Amino acid sequence: MKYIHLPMNVTKVLLLVALTALTGQALAGIRPGEIWPDTKGQHINAHGGGILRYKGTYYWFGEHKSEHTSNALVGINCYSSKDLRRWTPRGVALGVTDERGHDLERGCVMERPKVIYNERTRKFVMYFHLELKGHGYDAARYAVAVSNKPEGPYEYLYSSRSCPGILPLEFGPEEQVALDSLNIDDYKEWWTPQWRRAVAQGLIVKRDLQGGQMSRDMTLYVDTDGRAYHIFSSEENLTLHIAELTEDYLHHSGRYTRLSPVGHNEAPALFRHGDTYWMITSGCTGWAPNEARMFSAPSIWGPWTQHPTPCRGPKSEITFGGQSTYVLTLPDGRHIFMADIWRPKNPIDARYVWLPIDFEDGRPVIQWQSEWEL
Ligand code: DGJ
User: pTM of the predicted model, to two decimals?
Assistant: First the structure.
């Protein structure tokens, strides 16, 4: 028997033709900002999401959104895929309840869910931003759920503010003396130079010390040594916190640091490239897009340095109309930037921006492309 060796690109085309014939539909690339049908033909409903890779399958977790409200009427959805292009709905990983007064009472806010796998406990651990029904964004809590299977169902564990009674790692004796002199009642007016200095020194950390630090927009990150971190907007969204998780990933360990005090960052997405940690965030303009920010550090504990936006091309000054949610690192080391184009008047119609991250002069660059292939 004779084998014919075809050039790689011819093989690719033949494979695509065969797949098209089998599935009956052309396999388009990834189209940022367009409707993204799942394998049942419905626009994917997994907003503010994140991706877990487990045993060769990708799991996409995100907020279920409905037509008239951004509040949680269903819960956290899960989709799975082998190729990151075709996503199969796997149902609701963690649902709301009709029990009155429950943290997850239908109508609460469940945002930016992320799932990580703990190799020691063999559990899948979900964190998300929780706001209690009828209380706007005042609760500012993170919530934790756990499952034995990637797709769930997840068992709800608890919600909390972060690290009650504990100061950030960098607060030594000198910082504590400065903190002692601060009084929240002396700073009623925001954005004055004095107020900025006081917030940077820990005015709001002190205000919230007893009950725990606020925890809103968030992501999770597992480092190469297996340690995991919860990164979230704290202190009235003015300062980001990076909190180390316990070995089982179910709680904050109590070690945390502050990043960009008074920088007003939301939507953190953290990834590592070589020995450098990179973080992409947004400003705080509600559901409206703004210019992405970028930070880097030689260690997760800092020091963090700010850089210009990594976005390039049309609408790069407003992150292509989107807001960062996650950076997925592939097994070969490439990274994919994920963002949401929110549609607050019809939340279910919100779109996804997925774009590859390239490196120029050692810095991440995200170039707009209307269609691309992995
Ligand atoms: C911006 C945040 O990034 C979103 O997750 C959401 O909380 C909206 N604000 C609410 O206005």
Answer: 0.93
Which atom of ligand 1 is the closest one to the Cα of 70? 10
Distance CA 127, CA 246 (A): 13
Q: What is the CATH number of domain 32-160?
A: 2.115.10.20
Output the CA 123–ligand 1 centroid distance in Å. 28
Domain segments of the chain: what residues? 32-160
Side chain identity, residue 302: G
Which residue's alpha carbon is nearest to atom 1 within ligand 1? Answer: 286
DSSP code for 213: B
374 Cβ contact partners less than 8 Å away, ≥ 6 residues apart: 29, 30, 83, 84, 85
**Nearest to 100, CA basis, from 52, 138, 134:** 134
- The C-alpha torsion from 149 through 95 and 155 to 244, rounded to 10°, is 90
Ligand 1 atom showing the smallest separation from residue 267 Cα: 3
- Give 96-139 pLDDT, tens digit per residue: 999 999 999 999 999 999 999 999 999 999 999 999 999 999 99
- What is d(CA 11, CA 169) in angstroms, rounded to the nearest whole number? 55
Our answer on whether the CB atom of 286 is closer than 6 Å to any ligand 1 atom is yes
CA 308 to chain centre: 20
**3-state SS class at 196:** helix
At 64, list the tokens: 């279920």
